[in-house]
Design goal:
Chain B: It comes from Niveispirillum cyanobacteriorum. The complex is a heterodimer of chains A (466) and B (248). Chain A is built from 23 helices and 12 strands. Chain A is α/β, with parallel strands linked by helices. In chain A, the strands form 3 sheets. A 6-stranded parallel β-sheet of chain A has the order 1-10-7-4-2-3, sandwiched between helices. The longest helix of chain A has 23 residues. By secondary structure, chain B is an alpha/beta fold. Chain B has 13 helices and 8 strands. In chain B, helix 12 links the parallel strand 7 and strand 8. In chain B, helix 4 packs across helix 5, helix 4 packs across helix 6 and helix 5 packs antiparallel against helix 6. Classes of the chains: A alpha/beta (466), B alpha/beta (248). Chains A and B meet through helix 1, helix 15, helix 18, helix 19 and helix 20 of A and helix 1, helix 2, helix 3, helix 4 and helix 5 of B. Bound molecules: iron/sulfur cluster. Iron/sulfur cluster binds next to helix 14 of chain A.
């Protein structure tokens, strides 16, 4: 895959079918979320409450995580700490092996994508089965998700039918592309997996320090099957997901579904605390993942990134995401949140083009249920890109020249004079239809206005002289 | 009132008519206008591109230039948002300079975007303008979100006599300019611009206006390239135009 956002976006832009799908899908979700958030008179207060709880949880993160560990252990669960992705993979593979199985079922989880768990399991001879419908589709197609919440948003049902026919054995034979038939096939296929698999791996939307309770919300019910049927349940969560009190859930269980899919409540809200004899899995493991999060926490401006509850609302309102598509972000975190979280997790050297993948229009900040100031963080990270030396040399040079020009009145006048002289070569009908690099991107689709003979300053001075 | 103008680098060099129009409106309303010559640029380009140390230099220059101003009026939504919204960030997190932070915070309440000055500071909705054209208004992202100008600019336009004001569909969506975004992500920016132009053309307007010449430079550059015949004009020029002295 190409290495920076602009080139990857160009692929997405040329895919007109995908652009149409995305525009339609995001537009529909936008309408729904706007409606159900507007109907709550205390929506703004809820957003503030969500932000305040996250802030509090992160201010005393060490304390709440230790409390969580204590309570999970007390309830019969086991807690594991993973400093990075490799450690988390190693823990999960080991636990799965100990259970003596060669396949696991998985509940939709971005964190397992983040640590690239599936390839690690496969390498260890363990087959992971995604059970969220869209994740299953993406997995069967050997692709990457293109949307946080609707990972297969870029696919149509004919493509899905063909995949099911190829990958589902008897359940896929002779399948039509009618949605009810597709879901029926998936259901039969997944039921079999639920019944025969001993180990399930899930993410977590929340974990409550006070009680040791872990929670997942979903809309299909497949997650609930994974949470209850297998003997061993392994949940992995980023350390930022901890909430201080059980009552805090009441805020997030309102914020998340309304912001995410425009539903008033998630159809399935599962909460579990440790293990209970004769009910559900008899073994429960919670893996707490850092993987760069404590570094984000140390940055007082970018820290808010960790408030994210992965509702994907910022993607659905983002004009850049809508056109470039999710794959342009080359990450399991796409859109505006992806543009800030991915470079912080992976480093600016590798993902330094992402903070620039935004026009800073502010639509994401306007709708985010926990009010993350994404544009501010984007600009902050751009500062780090430049400071850490990942910006182009030519650009740095041009910016330096411009800074000196603006720092000195005489130099500014001189450059305007030089510009007026230079543009004579390029001018046509009073505008400039072509400019040399790095400004050639502008004249790709836009004329540039010519410098007028008299600047405002000249006009003003003449007027004052009279 | 004594009004100090910050005309912005793009207006000064590329769109001097905007500044002239601002002067005409304010003087017509009886205000004393001044233009401190030491001003250059608010630093937005450097700031948004990540050249924060360079931007800090321009913050200091701005503060020195406008320290004693009674009211600072800026005919640009994005530059106003920069001064009011981003200067504190630069002072606090980049310069790490308490004194500078206090100075920019003390200045912020005296900084006004042009239409905001008219509607909110002066409480006006009719500035006596006459402009017999079909016009559509693009509310820039900064006007909508950073500055929360609400209906202010539209109220001013509605009170212009002779105007045929038509609503722009999908008005809340970004035009795709975004400073260096238009160059660094030229193709995505172009895709956004194409949709914006489609909406503008659907209104049948002769003129698209806004409170920011950078959006207009981008939109107008596209409209010109496509030979649409639709022009872009800054809001100040419409408000400066009168029956006796139409704005050329
Ligand atoms: S940044 Fe905000 S809007 Fe975007 S996914 Fe996270 S919580 Fe949702």
């Amino acid at each position: 895959m190409s290495t920076n956002f602009p080139t990857r976006a160009a692929d997405g832009l040329r895919n007109t079918q995908q652009r149409r799908n995305l525009a339609k899908a995001t537009n529909t979700i936008r309408g729904k979320t706007a409606k159900v958030t507007a109907e709550l008179p205390d929506w703004e207060a809820l957003r503030e409450a969500g932000k305040a709880i996250k802030r509090e949880a992160h201010a005393k993160l060490d304390q709440y995580l230790l409390q969580l560990e204590e309570m999970v252990t007390k309830a019969g669960g086991h807690v594991h700490w993973a400093a990075d992705a490799a450690e988390a993979r190693e823990i999960i593979v080991r636990l799965t092996r100990q259970a003596g199985t060669d396949q696991v079922i998985k509940i939709k989880s971005m964190t397992t994508d983040e640590i690239e768990l599936n390839p690690a399991l496969e390498e260890a001879g363990i087959r992971p089965y995604e059970t969220d419908l869209a994740d299953m589709i993406v997995q069967m197609a050997k692709e990457r998700p293109s949307h946080l919440l609707v990972p297969a948003i870029h696919k149509n049902r004919v493509e899905i039918r063909d995949l099911f026919r190829a990958e589902m054995g008897e359940h896929g034979t002779g399948l039509s592309d009618r949605p009810p038939d597709l879901t029926r096939a998936a259901r039969a296929y997944l039921r079999q997996k639920f019944m025969e698999t001993k180990v399930a791996i899930s993410g977590a939307n929340f974990a409550v320090a006070e009680t040791g309770t872990v929670g997942v919300v979903e809309s299909e019910g497949n997650g609930r099957m994974c949470l209850t049927l297998p003997q061993v349940l392994i949940s992995i969560m980023g350390i930022e997901k901890v909430l201080p009190r059980f009552d805090d859930l009441s805020v997030f269980l309102q914020l998340l579904p309304r912001a995410a899919t425009g539903e008033r409540m998630n159809p399935y809200n599962s909460l579990w605390t440790g293990v209970h004899a004769g009910d559900g899995p008899c073994e429960f493991h919670l893996v707490l993942l850092d993987n760069g999060r404590s570094k984000i926490l140390a940055d007082e401006v970018a820290r808010e990134t960790l408030h994210c509850i992965r509702c994907s609302r910022c993607l659905n309102v983002c004009p850049v995401y809508e056109r470039a598509g999710g794959h342009a972000y080359d990450s399991m975190y796409q859109g505006p949140i992806g543009a800030i979280v991915t470079p912080q997790l992976r480093g600016l050297e590798e993902a330094g083009s992402l903070p620039y993948a935004s026009s800073l229009c502010g639509a994401c900040h306007e709708v985010c249920p926990v009010k993350i100031n994404i544009p501010q963080i984007l600009v902050h990270l751009r500062g780090r890109v430049v400071r850490e030396g990942h910006a182009g040399k030519g650009e740095a040079l041009a910016m330096g020249v411009a800074a000196r020009m603006f720092g000195n009145q005489g130099a500014l006048d001189w450059s305007l004079w030089a510009g007026r002289l230079g543009q004579k070569l390029l001018m046509r009908d009073g505008t400039l239809p072509w400019l040399p690099p790095p400004l050639s991107g502008w004249t790709l689709s836009r004329d540039f206005p010519a410098l007028p003979e008299q600047s405002f300053r000249d006009w003003w001075q003449k007027r004052e002289d009279k | 009132m004594r009004v100090s103008l910050f005309i912005t680098c793009i207006n000064d060099s590329l769109f001097p008519d905007t500044g002239r129009a601002v002067v005409r409106v304010l003087e017509r309303l009886g205000h004393q206008v001044e233009f401190p010559l030491a001003q250059t640029c608010c630093g937005q380009m450097h700031h948004n591109s990540g050249y924060h140390d360079d931007a800090v230099g321009l913050v200091r220059r701005f503060v020195d230039t406008f320290q004693d101003a009674e009211a600072i009026v800026i005919p640009s939504t994005s530059c106003t948002a920069m001064v009011r919204g981003q200067y504190p960030y630069l002072a606090q997190h980049v310069a790490k300079d308490e004194g500078l932070l206090r100075a920019v915070e003390a200045m912020a309440p005296r900084v006004f975007e042009f239409s905001e000055f008219l509607t909110q500071k002066l409480g006006l909705s009719d500035v006596g303008a006459y402009y017999p054209h079909r016009v559509t208004y693009h509310s820039s992202c900064n006007s909508l979100r950073s500055l929360n100008l609400g209906d202010g600019p539209l109220t001013l336009l509605r009170h212009v006599s002779g105007i045929d004001l038509v609503e722009l569909p999908n008005n809340r969506e970004c035009c795709g300019f975004g400073g260096t975004f238009a160059v660094k992500n030229a193709e995505t920016s172009t895709a956004m611009l194409t949709d914006k132009m489609r909406h503008i053309l659907s209104t049948g307007a002769e003129i698209c206006t806004a409170g920011d010449n950078s959006c207009l430079m981008h939109i107008g550059g596209g409209l010109s390239r496509q030979r649409t015949g639709v022009r872009t004009v800054h809001l100040a020029q419409i408000l400066a135009s009168t029956a006796e002295e139409p704005w050329a």
